[in-house]
């Protein structure tokens, strides 16, 4: 698998980022479109899950399990297919807007992807 990293969308872009993909359901306030190559909002946690987890970092494992279940849905699967194509093509940086740099949906997605490597073809 090509390099996959996670970065806060408000951090400055760098050449090492490769394809910068926003994986949040909402567009981040004050961020210009030029800073993001692709927006995969269907891969983001549902609004209900996002609201439930917000302010409860102690429920990180519960959030990850619920998010993993949502990734099995059709919209998320279509977005995952696009993401996997981008990862196969080169470095990808998953972008998120949350303040917590260790417990956010992009990190949860990165961990999920690490446990679900693409099928070799």
Descriptive report:
- The protein is α/β, with parallel strands linked by helices and 121 residues long.
- The protein has one domain (4-115).
- The protein is built from 4 helices and 4 strands.
- A 4-stranded parallel beta sheet has the order 1-4-2-3, with helices on one face.
- It starts with a strand and ends in a 6-residue tail after the last helix.
- Percent of sequence in beta strands: 5-15%
Number of domains: 1
Strand order of the largest sheet: 1-4-2-3
Q: What is the number of strand segments?
A: 4
Helix content: 25-40%
Q: Mind telling me the C-alpha Rg? A: 14 Å
Jot down its keywords.
37% helix, YeaO-like, 121 residues, DUF488 family protein
Per-chain topology:
Elements: E1 4-8, E2 19-22, E3 38-39, H1 47-53, H2 60-70, H3 74-89, E4 92-96, H4 105-115
Parallel strand pairs: 1-4, 2-3, 2-4
Brief sketch in words of this structure:
Helices cover 37% and strands 13% of the residues.
